[in-house]
Amino acid sequence: NAGVTQTPKFQVLKTGQSMTLQCAQDMNHNSMYWYRQDPGMGLRLIYYSASEGTTDKGEVPNGYNVSRLNKREFSLRLESAAPSQTSVYFCASKGSNQPQHFGDGTRLSIL
Amino acid sequence: QQQVKQSPQSLIVQKGGISIINCAYENTAFDYFPWYQQFPGKGPALLIAIRPDVSEKKEGRFTISFNKSAKQFSLHIMDSQPGDSATYFCAASNPTGTYKYIFGTGTRLKVLA
After folding, report:
1. How far apart are CA A57 and CA A87, in angstroms?
2. Considering Cα of B74, then A30, then A64, then A75, what sign does the dihedral take?
3. pLDDT of B1
């Protein structure tokens, strides 16, 4: 039982490149979330999907897009990466009457 | 009104001591307050959580104290151990059905052996 799996674990991009971060959960959870973690700023919500087929903006959505591919998978896309998007990205999922459960993150550097 | 303010930013405690981390919120509609523990290179993991209808919840060495009137809650780690050295985040849940969490900025705890 893997829980929430994020790929890749590390990535280095050049400014302007595009990339998709993948997230998959095997807990049959309805809700999924993408956060970014920066020093001194905690976890900030980028986008979320309350249920399959729906997505909504969080606190810091600019420069990102998401796709809820199916109930298991929720991807985050950077269309044109910028150095300000250097961060650690976490995906989380949540089922009924359960807390959010996090993956181990993708460490992204943009040069 | 959606912020959760966490303090201190960092904390150093001797082994066996008590670690205390505080959080404050403004939105009285928040209805779930989890604490997450994060080790380097790992994702946050739920440590303990409380709802506003109780004033205290204890699980082993970890206790949440909740003061609804003051809109504050705190994490107490009793008999702190070097293995407790990690970053701790408080959070509050948006009650709109989307289950969004608002996180505090984190506290880096170091327990000295």
Report:
1. 18
2. positive
3. 58
